[in-house]
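Batch manifest, entry 17 of 40.
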Amino acid sequence: MHPYRTHTCGELRIGHAGVRARLSGWIHRKRDHGNLLFIDLRDHYGVTQCVIDVSSPLFGAAESARVESVVTITGTVVERSEDTVNPTLDTGQVEVTIEEFLMESSAMVLPMQVAGEAEYSEDMRLRHRFLDLRREQVHRNIVLRNNVIASIRRRMHEQGFLEFQTPILTASSPEGARDYLVPSRNHPGHFYALPQAPQQFKQLLMISGFDKYFQIAPCFRDEDARADRSPGEFYQLDFEMAFVTQDDVFAALEPVLGGVFEEFGGGRTVTAPPFPRIPYAEAMLKYGTDKPDLRNAIEIADVTEAYRGSNFGLFAKMVDKGAVVRAIPAPGAADRPRAGFFDKLNNWARDEGQGGLGYIIFGAEGAKGPIAKNLEPERLEAIRAAAGVGDGDAVFFVCNQKAGAEKFAGIVRERVCDELGLRETGVFKFCWCVDFPLYERDEASGEIQFSHNPFSMPQGGLEALETKDPLDIVAFQYDIVCNGVELSSGAIRNHSPEIMIKAFEIAGYAAEEVEEKFGGLLNAFRYGAPPHGGSAPGIDRIVMLLADEPNIREVIAFPMNQQAQDLLMGAPAPVEPQRLKELHLRLDLPKPKKVVDQGGG
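Output type: structure tokens
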């Protein structure tokens, strides 16, 4: 007999009755019934109930063993009586009578319980992550993550993609976030950067003559945490293809993502390929965001002209100064109480730093509300038509400069949807957001800068760069979105040295600076570069959606906390002065803030 187990804790069934089995695992729960002691033994595969009688010489050892101790139990598999069958366990029709009991590793008193549904602080969970990972839900999430990655790899290989590994120590690149820097011992004053993405390397692979590349790539960005973004590091399905158009990239990725979500989505409906494509400008107008949640059917409308020159002076004056007005329909809201719905949303808008949230209610008797009193019938009809509403519906309004109006209208759209309970459930709704602007104006400096990926091809090529207003140039850039979560950005790449230098020049980079920063890639372009493009969906976000988890840290085995700290391993941590000396570094730490005594009497 094997020294640790003949079966796993999730394996035994009614057909094993009478078999002598050996199991090893963690004591999940103990239940002492006086003359009988029940032990639920858990391993990676499941839980098996084991039982020992008080008359057994092993009873004392079993009784004194703490939960989460690791033990080996040998005994006979017996069928449970009908009234003791546990239908929630795969092994629930049998139990093991304990005939041998061996303590492999005793556990101390636990700082947090593994069994049960108790809630613990994030710091507690991350500091004792090895215990947290034993809990059923977290354990299941990590297994799901493995299965998702395995499925992705299989699907990519089936399409003829080759898997590569690109360097971790590389040069800094302007990907839109701060790099993690690694000092070089052998090159004083010089630093490596951990890659924010394998962007240049995957392009170089296409230039090197490979046709389809992918990897489950680790990426590193020194940025703040949020619910759908882990600080420090994350993983993505990074892929690139040669001699492709945007349509080819979409056709390659859609069956991979669609197939994975169907495979692991638990019966939830998945958008069938081809996924809808929404131009960026349209997305910002209709949804107020470039990552729309299409489970919310509400669409925002532009009603600026209905207010231009109107008797509703507040909006009319703002429109004269360049503002726009966005209408957010509230289907079926006409019968909602004013105080409990309309006033509540108006007060919420003020709490969000807005002036309020005006509205019109449409009914069989006509339009109602403070705004409606100041608009002529033809203006009200224009609003009704633009917003696509009818009797029994209401419309909320946001008036501001274009960018501000779009952003807040998108927030209102989501709030109204949730207040009315309109969000569709049991579905994964995918879409592509396409035709992103290549440039944007920095609000602080007023300078032109890249809005997304600086290595993407402008639509219209060199001619567009030379003849168009930079803010009017769109690129072959695209995001794939699922249920309002951006899974990936991608692009058809700029593979022309001339176009690349011009594109960076518009963003404020001199040709010499481009040569210095991207010389490897730029030089490679000069020796024959194929048209190429790709994308990089985030693995963490894919698993988060499939696991129906609100926080990305629930699907990462060893995540950092929101302050980018690894509480389990104690990172980041100071190093000895000798190590700093080897790396030619001297610390210039910020001075501690002075605490002013406020007095107290």
